[in-house]
């Protein structure tokens, strides 16, 4: 069986809806069919094997991928046919299956998918705060000017969990306009966009003038909001300086210095709950959530809405001791960053990692008004990947 | 030391911001201070011990709880003082601590918090579909009439993961109005409110007329939307019947009949990804996510946006075999519910549990138009708890 020639240069990587550029990757110089696999060699002498079932599953032809949505239509329900013919065409791979189906693969697209290879992402790894950590500052003008400034802002936010935007306009709803560069607002029981200021009938400590110890927002949700944006419009009251710390770094110190407390706080679910006339939002989770290999994924620390402790009697004293130990560690000055937000300045932070708080302020001495919203981490990462295509 | 009498009957349970009614609970008949604990006896002879640190942590006085937000102000950073005096007052508990602080506890509030006792929630447990499962139907008129209908709808949704609302108006945006009874819309890259119909330039298989195999939406998000609402405005095209199955029930059958496939699908993270000009949303997770004790928490199954399989070469064949086994189980007719949505009918389902799909339709034969949105499970549970206060 022979594979008919294509009329034009195949562009199977775009047919796969893949926006990563492959034009710098080397072409193929050899392809050999083996037992349920094909062995490939690229021009840089790199070699790899791909299972036939994998190749069949990833066929980019219009019958296997929807030509408009680029989504996979083929369902790999059968063991794949044998290969009837294979050849290289301008350095790319052409395959004819025993049933007559033809598949063409871009050499660069395959090169980036060599089995066992790790994925190259524009999203940076999280970096714990060093003791002298200071967040990146991006100018508002650079953020709105184009991909470069917004990329720098997103990279710092995703890497450090905290970033500042300076010298923005004193404009109502500017926080919403900035957030909507990235994605839709994440609405909660406090609305899609909230005002942080001292209010007459507060339903939340943030809406008073009291000091707020370091905490995360909404641990009583199964999925607390990821990224919080707080945009300062007015801040001439006495006090009210913002406080931040890296909860992941604090958790690592706890793991090193008080392993039993770390174990208790990561293995003991407790309740967080907010009730008012309209809402009753309750979730049970440990203070520290770990992934399968024990890395800290999320910190839930919020003493205001920590609900009644429901544990067997004999576990309570130990849990309180562990809580107290972590609470003190979180306050440690060496991992603490404080600043008085200036009007026109916005802070953004990862609410599941970085704890935030503020000093008390005197509402009689002046005004303090922040506008806030939440964003999904998924949207921040997506936006960074899309912007990185252009840089 | 004596505890000063209160001027009025204490209402410490409301001071705790607790909306659960405690007036049916028995009063206290005895309280005895022991070693770091207090032993209590209620009028029904039930006995329990509470640690002093727990009682101090839960003091409902206005210095320990914010009188307006009802949030906890006290941080349990010190070992508690000893008890200087305790007494019962109208069946409730009064405590004087050695430092002079006074705490008063409602007997019914304590009764519901006896250590080791499980929590009574209005939110029903999930119930797997039996083979003859048919979803509950609630009339639109009952849903909007008051707490009873909406409670029935929420209870069925949270218990079964699927519920129908019948005989609603053929009104644009009715799905948004119904959703906003419950909570704010969960916006995604497809917007806060989306139209499901055949479109000229689709970026998603749902926006074509092709058949859709059973799937979950947006497994490429770290947190896919919880609850999906689909409101039918027009449906006179040939075909297009909706299909549903209980993914948790299918996963349990997999666990029983093909444990190795269950293990592979629950332990092997794979990539899901959606890319277009504006978005690049990528998440790596297993098809089946389990909790700490092995219960299925979430199903991610979406063959269209399953990304290139990135696994070590030797794991690929096994993964495809497991995928195929689960795929076939999911299609099994005995756990499948099909219906042709009528105009004015809305289906709601738990997108992380119940898989949905549709038969192909012929867009030349008539119109098919659904309006959809997503809601957070947190908001559905909260709404049910609040409505249950009134019933």
Furnish the topology, listing elements before pairings.
2 copies of one chain form a homodimer.
Chain A: H1 12-15, E1 28-33, E2 37-42, E3 47-51, H2 52-57, E4 83-89, E5 92-97, E6 102-105, H3 107-111, E7 136-139, H4 140-145, H5 147-160, E8 162-166, H6 174-182, E9 193-196, E10 212-215, E11 227-235, E12 238-239, E13 242-246, H7 247-257, H8 259-267, E14 270-275, E15 280-285, E16 288-290, E17 296-299, H9 313-330, E18 336-339, E19 346-350, E20 354-358, E21 361-362, E22 368-375, H10 377-388
Parallel strand pairs in A: 7-8
Antiparallel strand pairs in A: 1-2, 2-3, 4-5, 5-6, 8-19, 9-22, 10-20, 11-19, 11-22, 12-21, 13-18, 13-20, 14-15, 16-17
Can you tell me about this structure?
2 copies of one chain form a homodimer. The first copy, chain A, is an alpha+beta fold and 391 residues long. The first copy, chain A, folds into 2 domains: 12-111, NE0471 N-terminal domain-like, CATH 3.30.2020; 136-388, Clavaminate synthase-like (Double-stranded beta-helix, 4-Layer Sandwich), CATH 3.60.130.10. Chain A has 10 helices and 22 strands. Chain A has helices at 12-15, 52-57, 107-111, 140-145, 147-160, 174-182, 247-257, 259-267, 313-330, 377-388; strands at 28-33, 37-42, 47-51, 83-89, 92-97, 102-105, 136-139, 162-166, 193-196, 212-215, 227-235, 238-239, 242-246, 270-275, 280-285, 288-290, 296-299, 336-339, 346-350, 354-358, 361-362, 368-375. In chain A, the strands form 7 sheets. A 6-stranded mixed β-sheet of chain A has the order 7-8-19-11-22-9. The radius of gyration of chain A is 27 Å and the shape is elongated.
């Amino acid at each position: 069986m022979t594979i008919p020639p294509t009329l034009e240069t195949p562009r199977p990587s775009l047919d796969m809806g893949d926006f990563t550029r492959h034009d710098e990757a080397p072409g193929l110089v050899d392809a050999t069919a083996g037992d349920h696999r094909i062995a490939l060699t690229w021009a840089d002498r790199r070699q790899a094997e791909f299972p036939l079932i994998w190749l069949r599953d990833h066929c980019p032809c219009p019958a296997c991928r929807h030509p408009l949505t680029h989504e996979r239509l083929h369902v790999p329900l059968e063991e794949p046919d044998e290969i009837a013919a294979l050849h290289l065409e301008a350095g790319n791979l052409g395959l004819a299956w025993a049933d007559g189906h033809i598949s063409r693969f871009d050499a660069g697209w395959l090169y980036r998918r060599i089995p066992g290879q790790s994925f190259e992402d524009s999203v940076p790894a999280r970096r714990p705060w060093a003791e002298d950590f200071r967040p990146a500052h991006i100018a508002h003008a650079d953020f709105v000017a184009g991909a470069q400034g917004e990329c720098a802002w997103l990279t710092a936010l995703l890497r450090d969990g905290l970033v500042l935007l300076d010298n923005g306009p004193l404009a109502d709803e500017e926080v919403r306009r900035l957030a909507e560069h990235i994605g839709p607002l994440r609405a909660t029981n406090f609305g899609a966009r909230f005002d942080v200021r001292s209010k007459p009938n507060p339903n939340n400590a943030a809406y008073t003038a009291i000091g707020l110890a370091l905490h995360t927002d909404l641990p009583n949700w199964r999925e607390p909001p990821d990224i919080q944006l707080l945009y300062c419009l007015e801040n001439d009251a006495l006090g009210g300086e913002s406080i931040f710390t890296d909860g992941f770094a604090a958790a690592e110190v706890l793991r090193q210095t008080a392993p039993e407390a770390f174990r208790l706080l990561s293995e003991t679910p407790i309740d967080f709950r907010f009730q008012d006339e309209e809402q009753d939002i309750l979730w049970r989770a440990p203070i520290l959530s770990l992934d399968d290999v024990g890395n800290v994924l999320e910190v839930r620390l919020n003493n205001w809405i920590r609900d009644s402790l429901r544990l067997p009697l004999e576990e309570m004293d130990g849990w309180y001791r562990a809580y107290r130990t972590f609470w003190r560690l979180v306050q440690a000055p060496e991992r603490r960053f404080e600043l008085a937000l200036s009007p026109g300045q916005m802070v953004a932070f990862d609410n599941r990692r970085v704890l935030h708080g503020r000093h008390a302020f005197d509402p009689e001495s002046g005004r303090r008004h922040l506008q806030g919203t939440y964003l999904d981490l998924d949207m921040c990462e997506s936006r960074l990947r899309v912007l990185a295509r252009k840089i």
